[in-house]
Amino acid sequence: MGESRWWLISLAAAALMVVLLTIHMGLMHLTGLLRATGVDLGDVRSFAEVTARGRSVTQLVFYLLLLAAALYHGLYGLRSVLLEVTPPRGQGLISGLVLLAGLVAFAYGAYVTVRTFTG
Amino acid sequence: MRKQAAPDSAAATVTLRVFRFHPEAAASPRYQDYRVPAAPGMTVLEALVCIKEHLDATLAYRSSCRMGICGSCGMFVNGFPRLACQTQVQTLGSLVQVGPLPNYPVIRDVVPDLEPMVTHHAAVRPFIIRDEREQEPPTTEYLQTPGELEAYLQFAYCIKCGLCLAACPTVATDPAFTGPQALAQAYRYSADSRDWGFTARRAAVDHPHGLWRCHLAGACTEACPKGVDPALAIQLLKRLALAAALGMGRRRPAPLAPPPVAVQRRPDIPAPPPPIVGASPAADPT
Asked: What is the pTM of this model?
């Protein structure tokens, strides 16, 4: 697979993040702003609300997608920066380490999300 | 140490501070000053010729055409990659510093080893690729509209002087980077309506040290003495690569012109010689 395809996936991940992050920020952190526009979501960050949302399939898919997109986009950018400052001989190792870090981070994030879903 | 050429009463004198390095002598690099009479219109290359003829015959530099066509005399003049034959001394002030192009190994004095550029250039297969035997030997012409010519013409002006690689900050940090010259030429041939070779060329440019390593600093375009704009070519090449990654953008290569019908050669125009490439042994006149 050529580098263009990895770059294209990074671009798609960024586009996906624009949508998912907007929804996340709106529902989680900008409730005051929504309230001002007449939309009252209640106390979205209370324990009961968080656990209730965590048990929905929509929430599970939403956050797994956001996790994958953010990790891929961020780590692809990190790899690009690291490749700039790494001698050619060490570049395979850099790509491998970044991939490993991404897989570990995704596994951990997915574990938390799935555990919340299953209760 | 400062040497001075015979003074010319009509000319101002400038000091050329020239990089000197002889690897075989194992001497460390140094700069040497020469005072040269600079007549109006005198170029840096002419000043170097003056030094070699009158002051120091050991000075090494590379040049050929003296008119900005061959690309031989690329040098680092006052901190900027330029063609010495296209740079007038009097535009540079009273002190002109001349060094070899950065980002290349130095052979001697201001002579760079352009092998890295040539290697990358050859790797992108800078020629028209078609999966047919028409190219060898040709029987007719490929049809191309003026618009199709415009798509690549600007990038065909590259004279392979190597100034763009000397200016490129990415080449400075990544020796494996394909470089603006080769990437621009990859686009030049891929954008040619007669070419059907981007798939064959893609492996040479679409890798971690290829077109995505370009950060669009634009230094290559600023340095290019022929207005090629390699930075633009690289961005257009990225578009081609993305289209290919998505399975889009395939085009039909330029068609062959129909063979002439009922045309008679004028008796005063000689017939062309028989083809020597791809000709059958039976047709060999020897």
From this structure: 0.82
A vs B, Cβ pairs < 8 A, gives 40
**Preferred mutation among B190, B206, B234 to probe A, highest tally of A CBs within 10 A:** B206
Q: Give the phi and the psi of residue B142 in degrees, each rounded to 5.
A: -90, 135
Per-residue pLDDT of B218-242, as tens digits, reads 999 999 999 999 999 999 999 999 9
B182's tokens: 């080769």
* Contact residues of B toward A, CB < 8 A: 173-176, 202-203, 206-213, 238, 241-242, 244-246
Residues 6+ apart with CB under 8 A from B153: none
Q: Residue A88 and residue B174: Cβ atoms within 8 Å?
A: yes
Q: pLDDT digit string (tens) for B8-54?
A: 545 689 999 999 999 888 778 999 999 999 889 999 999 999 999 99
User: What distance lies between CA B74 and its chain's CA centroid?
Assistant: 10
Pairwise CA distance, residues B75 & B61, whole Å: 9
Q: CB-based contact (8 Å) between A14 and chain B?
A: no
